[in-house]
Design brief:
about 20% helix; alpha+beta; about 270 residues; RsuA_PseudoU_synthase; disordered N terminus; TruA/RsuA/RluB/E/F_N; globular
């Protein structure tokens, strides 16, 4: 890693280093065991002034910190604290209810994590007929802060819609649309596929990014501009992407993903 490169840390967030009898750990050891870089490279990052603890640059090698409470940053990137909490991301299949149990016996999120020992709950929700990313955790503070309207992160969706989506429609979305329950801000919008002019086709594929969490907001938004949604997938939540996660599959958030989400939630 070059001195000014941000750490590329894809280590699962639950893999945490062990502390000494005092519950403390040397800072360079914490960085190395969290997957930032080798021990020697972590020492170089400290000496170069790229490591902060609780807002203060730390350059003295051997400095010990409490990994459960210290707010550590490497080149500005947050390193999550040690915790016994779990933070998972699941690719919710279409037709699965966004609840941990369902009195009507429908397939729900709880069925997909039935083999997990933790008591998990979901952060936000997806419509039953919407598929894609949803975060599951047993960390109440994290969930509450991340779901709060003032802290909501960008969420990206890919929608298959009726009709040809013109440039003017994309401009209308980006300019902001007002629905019955208030205005909606669209951060990004573009047509990514489909050609309704092709024989036998009458659909387009649109990708858009919003930070709203209101009920069926994407479907109502696209219906408002004249393009009812046929199929909808959430492909990204902040830094967390769908990538190769198949329907019904889940994984732990990486250290880098969790750190960025914690920053977004002001934790």
């Amino acid at each position: 890693m070059k001195p000014h490169d941000a750490p590329d840390n894809d280590q699962p967030s639950s893999q945490r280093p062990e502390t000494d009898e005092d519950g403390l750990i040397r800072l360079q050891k914490l960085l190395a065991q969290s997957g930032v870089a080798s021990r020697r490279k972590c020492e170089e990052l400290m000496l170069d002034g790229l490591v902060e603890v609780d807002g203060e640059v730390v350059t003295r090698l051997g400095t010990k910190v409490d990994p459960r409470t210290a707010v550590v940053r490497v080149d500005g990137k947050r390193l999550p604290p040690i915790s016994d909490k779990v933070h998972l991301v699941l690719n919710k299949p279409r037709g699965v209810v966004s609840t941990m149990s369902d009195p009507e016996g429908r397939r729900c999120l709880g069925d997909l994590v039935a083999d997990r020992p933790e008591r998990l709950f979901h952060v936000g929700r997806l419509d039953t007929d919407t598929e894609g990313l949803i975060i599951l955790t047993n960390d109440g503070d994290f969930a509450q802060h991340l779901a709060h309207p003032s802290h909501e992160v960008d969420k990206t969706y890919v929608a298959e819609v009726d009709g040809e989506v013109h440039v003017r429609t994309i401009r209308e979305l980006l300019a902001g649309v007002t629905l019955d329950d208030g205005p909606v801000t669209v951060t990004r919008a573009r047509v990514v596929g489909g050609d309704p002019r092709r024989e036998g086709s009458n659909r387009s594929i649109v990708e858009l990014t919003i930070h709203e969490g209101r009920n069926r907001i994407v479907r109502r938004l696209l219906d408002h501009v004249g393009h009812p949604v046929r199929r909808l997938t959430r492909t990204q939540i902040g830094p967390v992407t769908l990538a190769r996660l198949g329907p019904g599959e889940m994984r732990e958030l990486t250290v880098a993903e969790l750190g960025e989400l914690m920053d977004s939630a002001q934790l």
